[in-house]
Amino acid sequence: MVHSRISLAVASLALGAAIAIPVLGLPGTAGSSGGVAAAFACPGDGSADGCPAPTDASALTATAADPTVTIPVTPNPTEPSPPDSGPTVPPSATFTPGPSQPPSVTSAPAGAATATSPIATPRPKAKPTAPPTSRPTPIATPSPAPTYMPSASPTPTASPTPTPAPTATPAPAWTVVVNDQFTSGGVPSHWILYDAPYGSGAGNCADPSHVTVSGGYMHILMSYQASGACGAGWYTGGMMISDAYGSVDQRVTVRFRVVNNGVQGHYIIPMRWPDTAPWPSGGEEDYCETSTLTGCTTFLHYGSNNSQIWAEHAVNLAEWHTMQFTRRDHVVTAAIDGTVVWTYQGTSTTLPDTMKRVVLQQECQSSCPSGTSGYEDIQIDWITIEDPAK
Description:
Blueprint: H1 2-14, E1 19-21, E2 39-40, E3 69-71, E4 174-180, E5 191-193, E6 211-214, E7 217-225, E8 233-235, E9 238-241, E10 250-261, E11 266-274, E12 284-290, E13 295-302, E14 307-314, E15 321-328, E16 331-336, E17 339-345, E18 356-363, E19 375-388
Antiparallel strand pairs: 1-2, 1-3, 4-19, 5-9, 6-7, 7-8, 7-19, 9-18, 10-15, 10-19, 11-12, 11-18, 12-13, 13-14, 15-16, 16-17
């Protein structure tokens, strides 16, 4: 604002006019209200209407009632007008003085002549315009910085004590006492061969010559012969393991097949017969007993009345099969080619605790064939007998 007022005063001096500048901010003056008053003085000769007579050019009039100071200024024709120190404010410019800003006063040197100029028509006082109220830019409220909260350390969980896997009950141990493979030689000496009438049929008669070993098998043969211990008739083969290999509990495994040529016998492969106890109360265990090739039956004899527990097994006996029969702790299990096909949980009554021995037996069940031709050959590939381990 000071710069604008000085520019106005300089412009007026260049025109040779006297400038009336209100003294602002002085105590007791009308200019203390902060407004701007611009007035032009009468010419020096008093020729204008209402102007007083000329006075001393060096006079400077200022009263408390009239704060306007009239400063006569005589331009120097030999000096150029000073350059503008700023842009000339147009008449429509609005000046807003700063608070308590005193006006700038330019005074001529003492003894200078007062120049006269035509009376300028006073310009209307510009109404001050309040500066636009700028809307304050809202200050963004800063987001509070996240407070670091340390994560609580998890309470360590004790690793559970692993439950040990249940220990499988070991299979009962067995000891092999007989292992006959029949690869060479004759019938092993621990087999006792039948040599007389036996079995359930009146015509059954055994001949030791009907048990042979050849071709890697032991052969048990039923055939007709013209003479023998029983005369002319059908003779069969049969044998029992020696008493050194008897036991209450045993496991017997045998691989065999049956080859028929025109006749069909009756056989039990294998059987366990009581060694010293009377029959039938001493028990009898016939594991695979049959008169056909399509299957066999297990019979467990017990009691004085020859009671029986039995179970049938479907199997083609014309083909090779491995059969295993186990008796232990009053339990009997039958397995064919490694698959258990029957299990029986007995007692000391149904499975008497008597010493028994293994038997391989062939016979004419109730009657022998009527003719004289044909044969039946039971071929034993191998057999093992096991006792419980001690």
